[in-house]
Write a structure and sequence with these properties.
The chain has about 270 residues and is mainly alpha-helical. It has nine helices and two strands.
Length: about 270
């Protein structure tokens, strides 16, 4: 069932996806998740000049976008009653960790029971990316100690390593989870219309957090970028290792890039 190729720090072991038992598939998926998380956290050790330039662009773009934080929050505060409550409720519940992991557990369970490699791979991509980005956002949230809009302290009030919930605005956990799942699922489809639909649903939780005054615009923007970067990194690892016997397609991919110009700040996806 297993090849003679040993597990090491760089490669996954191989397994016959069709004949393996459910227990063997589960162990393989756990091992793949572990290596995927390790791969994500060690990538900076292999960064080149362009990678550091992209990081600098992300930091600069976030800092520039912060200039609009208080203005956007004030506008939303004046129009909050105009936003449908059902959309805001959906955003909160879907982005909540317990509901998020229950949904992914259901997805993975179905893939495991049916031995569907593509569904299992998608779920492993989601959970691996969630662990990675989740750890990063947890450390950053506690470290920066940024005040939430509702505290009335302003967008530039920071209390480093604060334990207060009102000082945990940056980055947005709901956004990280929602965008991670949406981006992971959207990658599995070739149709730009299906991708657009998935991304639209994934954008509702971040927007609802913004509307509810729980986060600043930069909290949402940075978290979105972080999630996309992590998912793409894990996806690249899974393709490189040919995990689940799935090889990377050469067409219908979205190329993401950061745009920071005089009249444009944000993520640009090209089909």
């Amino acid at each position: 069932m297993f090849s003679t190729k040993c597990v090491d720090a760089q490669h996954l072991y191989k397994i016959d996806q069709d004949s393996a038992s459910t227990w063997s598939l589960l162990k393989y998926d756990i091992n793949t998740t572990w290596h995927g998380v390790k791969y994500s956290f060690t990538r900076p050790l292999h960064w080149k000049k362009n990678d550091f330039l992209k990081l600098g662009g992300l930091v600069f773009g976030t800092a520039t976008l912060a200039l609009a934080d208080e203005g956007v929050d004030k506008y939303i505060d004046n129009h909050r009653s105009n936003f449908p409550k059902v959309v805001r409720d959906y955003g909160w519940y879907f982005g909540s960790p317990q509901n998020y992991f229950m949904a992914n557990a259901g997805l993975y369970g179905f893939g495991l029971v049916t031995k569907n490699s593509k569904i299992r791979r998608t779920s492993v991509l989601i959970i691996t990316s969630s662990i990675t980005s989740g750890l990063i956002q947890t450390v950053a949230k506690n470290g920066f100690g940024r005040a939430r809009p509702g505290t009335g302290k302003g967008a530039f009030h920071f209390k480093l390593f604060s334990k207060e919930a009102g000082q945990h605005s940056f980055p947005s956990g709901h956004t990280v989870l929602s965008v991670t799942m949406a981006h992971s699922i959207a990658k599995q489809f070739e149709s730009p219309w299906i991708k657009a639909g998935v991304y639209t649903l994934g954008a509702i939780p971040p927007m609802s957090r913004l509307i509810d005054g729980a986060h600043w615009l930069t909290d949402i923007g940075f978290s979105t970028a972080l999630s996309i970067i992590v998912v793409d990194s894990v996806d690249k690892f899974l393709f490189k290792e040919e995990a689940f016997d799935i090889i990377e397609p050469n067409k219908n991919k979205i190329s993401w890039s950061f745009a920071f110009t005089g009249n444009q700040i944000g993520l640009v996806g090209r089909f």
